[in-house]
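Structure tokens please, single chain.
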Amino acid sequence: MIICAPTNAYDLSRKKHVLRRKLSYHCPMKTAPEPISVSVTVLSQLFLYLHSLNVDVDEFLHSLGVDPQTVRALDERIPVETYLLIQDEAARFIRDPYLGLHMGEFAEAGSWSILGYMMMNCNTLGAAFEKAGKYSRIIGNLIDARAEIKPGKIHVTYFTPPHAPAMSHHCYESTISSTVQMMRTLTGAPLNPLEVTFTHPQPESTAEHERIFRCPVRFGHEENSLTLDWMIASLPVRMANPSLLEHFEKYAQDFMAQMERNDEHTRTVTRIILSKLDDENLSIEKVAKELSVSVRTLQNRLEAEEVVFSDLLRDIRQRLAQKYIRDDYTVEQITYLLGFSEPSVFRKAFKKWLGVTPREYRERVRSHPQLEVA
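Here you go.
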């Protein structure tokens, strides 16, 4: 469906309303994309690996402009960009094209924060990974997993949220390698997957993949996945302790509740922004009026959550624009949906956001759909 430019204010308002209603069936989005972050404990796997190679980790971090203390504080989270920078630069520094795989070999309960300790005290491996699915946000929201039960098998698919930045193959390789290592550590058994698949192309050598996974590994696949024998779910966890499990789970529940409280006002403002997104003059003053608070009060509440209204509004528009382009909506449609006065204004804003035009972005997504975003 292509919408021509409206000829008057009534037509513009009507077309926006109709288009918004149609898109709501395809793109239900109640809140803005949650900022992506990673628990610093995940980096402990990388640091252990680097230490094994006699790398001075602090010196390496300083060379990247990263303060070592900021990535070692207990239960702290870092922006995804910082995590990806450290991981990718480490691969270059030690010249290891298989860094993700090797990171995974150093996975232990502590490297998964409180989540790892919960898993360590479950009765069975199946129960441990059920907890992992329930509380995975504790260690980050860059990569999520979806399990599907098939005859005699468990098929686990790994994916990133639509607004995740493009990332190297190290991320998925470290995630799946870490998962396999945790399976072996928790049970004390030499468990192997039935199959592992990756979306990235096959490397020159697959020897390390075969050594670590001990199963068929396929590349250039439509998904990043891990397939397991159903029977491993019933294997006992060797250090299970119900009392400790209860203690750690209570901590995990409190931790996640605090995470929810930390962005309470951001979520509220986001809902209002989304309901008024086609207003090209949308401002913090209008949102404050909607909430019956002063502009200063609203600014203070957002500031406490490390959010600036203008940045939030820009981010919502940018992420939705990317999603609508991936869903094949036209520039004209997106212009009116997101409250821009003219398609040319939207094109200029998009180029400023991502460094490419909407057309270039659309072509890039079509050429590399597995990247999701530029």
